[in-house]
Amino acid sequence: MASIPRRFTGDTLVIASHNKGKVREIADLLGPYVRTFTTAGELGLPEPEETGTTFIANAELKARAAAAAGHVAMADDSGLVVPALGGDPGIYSARWAGPEKDFAMAMRKVEEGLAGKTDRSACFVCALTLAWPDGHVESVEGRCSGTLVWPPRGDKGFGYDPMFVPDGFDITFGEMEPARKHEMSHRADAFRQLVDRCFR
Ligand SMILES: O=c1nc[nH]c2c1ncn2[C@H]1C[C@H](O)[C@@H](COP(=O)(O)OP(=O)(O)OP(=O)(O)O)O1
Ligand SMILES: [Mg+2]
């Protein structure tokens, strides 16, 4: 029996992310439904260790950690899944960039792994969790398929965007206007599901 989803009825939402690119995208996507946003960083909350083995497990862990401070919190755990690399970097996408968040290096690592391989398909995945202070959670997962190109192109996005060309396009997410990316990304797919379930 499917349980009845819980709706977001407050007016403040904590964005449980320390990634500025994601915080900006989440605030853009949920702008119409939420009066006030704050972030885990602004509340001085620590960045929890991502010990889960799936995107959803890590999104739940980050959202629960922030909701413990007393407000409904939303977390995003996302990454680039490359079948030819056995699914890497996957949940390790941020960690591949190291403590300096060096995505030029992380993208080079992906490209080196693809040397001599013909399958350059990839998929961005985004798990979103909304967590309440009483422990209730709602989670969804979205995806966006595409192809990896080299060299990287464009500086409009973040992370692995400059090497990802979504299916049906010939420009990378790094070259795409943010508004366009927001309509079709893995994060947009996940948000559509979560908004349907919890925000209207
Ligand atoms: O739209 C995207 N365009 C490009 N790259 C992306 C995207 N979405 C996720 N990614 C990559 C980079 C990011 O760093 C990692 C997520 O790792 P993830 O642990 O979920 O996020 P994070 O550590 O950067 O911030 P936080 O955990 O505080 O939310 O996957
Ligand atoms: Mg992280």
From TrEMBL:
It catalyses: ITP + H2O = IMP + diphosphate + H(+); dITP + H2O = dIMP + diphosphate + H(+); XTP + H2O = XMP + diphosphate + H(+). GO terms for cellular component: cytosol. InterPro entries: dITP/XTP_pyrophosphatase, ITPase-like_fam, RdgB/HAM1. Its EC number is 3.6.1.66. Its cofactor is Mg(2+). Keywords: Hydrolase, Magnesium, Metal-binding, Nucleotide metabolism, Nucleotide-binding. Mg(2+) binds at E49, D77. Pfam families: Ham1p_like. The active site is at D77 (proton acceptor). It is an enzyme of class 3 (hydrolase). Substrate binds at S17, H18, N19, K20, G21, K22, S78, F158, G159, Y160, D161, K181, H186, R187. GO terms for biological process: nucleotide metabolic process; purine nucleoside triphosphate catabolic process. Belongs to the HAM1 NTPase family. Homodimer. This is dITP/XTP pyrophosphatase. The gene is rdgB.
